[in-house]
Amino acid sequence: MSFVKVKGTYDVLPNESKRWQALEKFVRDLFNTFKYEEIRTPMMEYSNVFHRENEQSDMVTKETYNFKDKGDRDLTLRPEGTAGVIRSYVENKLYANNRLTKLYYIGPNFRYERPQKGRYRQFMQFGVEAVGSSDPFVDAEVIFLAYETIRRLGLKGVKVKLNSIGDDLSKSNYKKVLVDYLTPFKDQLSADSIERLNKNPLRILDSKAPEDKEIVENAPLPINYLSDAAKEHFNKVKEALDALNVPYIIDGKIVRGLDYYSHTVFEIEAAIPGFGAQNTLGGGGRYESLVEELGGPRLGAIGFAFGMERLLYALEMENIQLVNEERLDAYFIYFDEPSKSMSFKLLNELRQDDFKVDMSYLPKSFKSQLKEALDLKAKYLVIIGENELKDQMVQLKNTDTQIQELIPMNQLKEKLGVL
Ligand code: HAM
User: Fold this and answer.
1) What is the pLDDT of residues 275-289, one digit of tens each?
2) What per-residue confidence (pLDDT) applies to 419?
3) Looking at ligand 1, which atom is closest to the CA of residue 306?
4) Using one digit for the tens of pLDDT, what is the confidence trace for 178-221?
């Protein structure tokens, strides 16, 4: 019998976790600048939070991990952050203060998808939701924040793709036009798209199936069927983004993989070799009825989420360092039990003063202790042998200059502090 990780999951080992921590810190600091506050919602929700009547997307209907708990309750591991955040927003009446509520989150999500590079069954997202307003300036703020995220990280080969799928009126008008266009091609469409034709025709637009692509190429686009109100909203969003010099491309085919969207939708794409189809780093959009669907007032909202594995991979491909080289202040090297005890005592005293110091607990030769010290990039070696111990002294060696001096133990802290 062997013990292996669940298909589509991965371990973050110590040599990688620093990059994750650095990305999380970057995100927290940036979102904080924009006055978004963290919300932490459960990884599981009652299934009805995701499986709503109006949510017929593949992601929710086919890819969720659903199970019954011992109390016969239907639960779902969250496939994304938005629905749970809005459930919490409504349940905790965060709308009561009559303000725009600006939330961010970082956490794992679960989708039963075919795993491949950049696509996992458990994956991490960070995202924001600005809830409580339909003001186009909020769309622009949220898109600007998504853009700032990649700009400040230093990613170059990235595009912001923008579209509007309109309000309810535009959407229902457009659906009719699209179904009329697609129906004569019904027999040529992929099986998935035939199924979507009744339920969710918009999703056919971003189908990756080769047989659909050609048909879709000439399909009418939602952006050409916007109501006057939706057109005006989208124009204001674009104006605000232009004023901020956010470079974006209008892409009429972006409809997104969830059904709750209306008006503005956007995706952040990376042109990174080796990414293949998984080149979307993040995406989001406006949703005007989800708050109400989850039992709250009719309030508009907009948000986005980035996939963190893809983002970290993109940063690696563009050679962007997130983590500065970390050095140990000092590494203790000892020779016998008494010098080991003394090292242990001295090093833990130094830790109380926030020095980053370490020693080996495995019985090791001088040479292998030295190797470990150099691997850990220790700035100093503190060497204690029989003679040093007798005289209450230590050898302090600077690993950069190779200068070594004999100093009294009680001056160690002072020496490390000023050197
Ligand atoms: P989404 O487009 O489904 O949107 O996911 C956002 C990002 O999560 C994707 O662009 C991708 O980078 C990453 N992602 C999705 N699935 C996987 C996977 N299986 N493995 C690795 N990464 C993945 C949402 O989730 C919406 N909740 C975004 C949003 C927030 N809309 C409004 N507010």
Assistant:
1) 777 789 999 999 999
2) 59
3) 7
4) 999 999 998 999 998 998 888 888 889 888 889 998 899 999 99
Q: State the total domains in the chain.
A: 2
Residue 54 pLDDT level (bands cut at 50, 70, 90): confident
> What CA–CA distance (Å, rounded) separates 187 from 183?
9
Pair (92, 126) in one structural domain = yes
* Whether the CB of 84 sits within 6 Å of ligand 1: no
The finding on whether 206 has its CB within 6 A of some atom of ligand 1 is no
β-strands 249-250, 158-164 pairing = parallel
Helix (H) or strand (E) holding 282: strand 280-287
C-beta of 257 in contact with ligand 1 (< 6 A): yes
- The finding on whether 81 has its CB within 6 A of some atom of ligand 1 is yes
Of 106-110, 256-260, 286-290, the range with the lowest mean pLDDT is 256-260
| Confidence check: pLDDT of 314 > 80 | yes
Judge contact between 331 and 381, C-beta under 8 A.
yes
The answer for residues whose C-beta is within 8 angstroms of residue 418's C-beta and 6 or more apart is: none
Using CA positions, which residue lies closest to atom 15 of ligand 1?
307
Q: Which two tokens stand for residue 269?
A: 């794409």
Nearest CA to ligand 1 atom 14: 307
- Quick check: is 8 in a domain? no
Atom of ligand 1 nearest to the CA of 303: 33
Percent of the chain scoring above 70 in pLDDT: 100
Residue 306 alpha carbon to ligand 1 centre in Å? 6
Within this chain, do residues 156 and 267 fall inside the same structural domain, yes or no? yes
